[in-house]
Amino acid sequence: MEHRKLIMITIMATLMFAMVSCSKWDDFKKYTADGETIYSGKVDSLKIMPGRLRVELKGLLSADAKIEKIKVTWNDKKDSLVFAISKTGRPETINKIFSVDEGVKNFNVQTFDASGNASLIVTATGIVYGPKYESNLFNRPILNAVILNNGNAKIDWDTFDTSTGAKGTWITYTTTAEKRTTVFSAIGESAAMLSNYKPNTTFSYKTIYLPVPTVIDTLYSVQDSRLIQ
To answer: How confident is the model at residue 86 (pLDDT cuts 50, 70, 90)?
Structure first.
């Protein structure tokens, strides 16, 4: 009696497993009703390098030789870019620079093959710098600016917070030979020397910034000017 009961339990368990398996298979078939889903190879190691009103997209294509183009969308898919890629061997490195409006952006990237099959979406966030950001950059403060007895001008720099990426200052002035000359004073220098400075003229100056190591463009503070008599 116990043996027959064990057999019945085994049969019922087998039937229930078969019903569950069929159910799962039917659910799977719903997603492949039009045939097997085919994905194009996605972009790997996606990075967005920030720039001034532009970014650089970097990534690596897998060994899927059928990939023909890449689509990038941002601003909630309101803006997009589609570009073809070369037919070289794989893996292949991608480097694409394109214009983007200022702000923090989320970029969605997909590849497509010749049949229109898309890859899974790869997402990366990037910063785009522009006039709004630059309007908040400070020019390096001047402590003193005088003409020396040898005819050169000397600019003494005041203390300055460089944590936002200030790297130095470009200075443009007029020489005694009426020539406009531009010199660079690195952020580590306490003073700048301007050779053969023409008295009673102004010099202009602006500070350059690299806010992050990966930025592809140099940013500038608003230009200032000062008279040396």
So the answer is: confident
- What percentage of the chain reaches a pLDDT higher than 70? 80
85 pLDDT above the threshold of 90 = no
Q: Considering the chain, what is the average pLDDT of its residues?
A: 86
Distance, in Å, from the CA atom of 193 to the CA atom of 169, rounded to the nearest integer, reads: 12
Which pLDDT does position 31 carry in this prediction?
38
SS (H, E, C) 137-169: CCCCCEEEEEECCCCCEEEEECCCCCCCCEEEE
Same domain, 125 and 141: no
Give mean pLDDT, residues 70-96: 87
Structural tokens at position 70: 């890449």
Helical residues (DSSP H) of the chain, grouped into ranges: 2-31, 131-134
Number of domains in the chain: 2
- Pick from 129, 161, 181: which residue ends a domain? 129
| Cα separation values, 169 from 49, 55, 194, Å | 24, 25, 13
Residue 79 structural domain: 43-129
CATH of the domain at 92: 2.60.40.10
Residue 38 lies in a domain: no
What lies within 8 Å, CB to CB, of 68 at 6+ separation is: 84, 85, 112, 113, 114
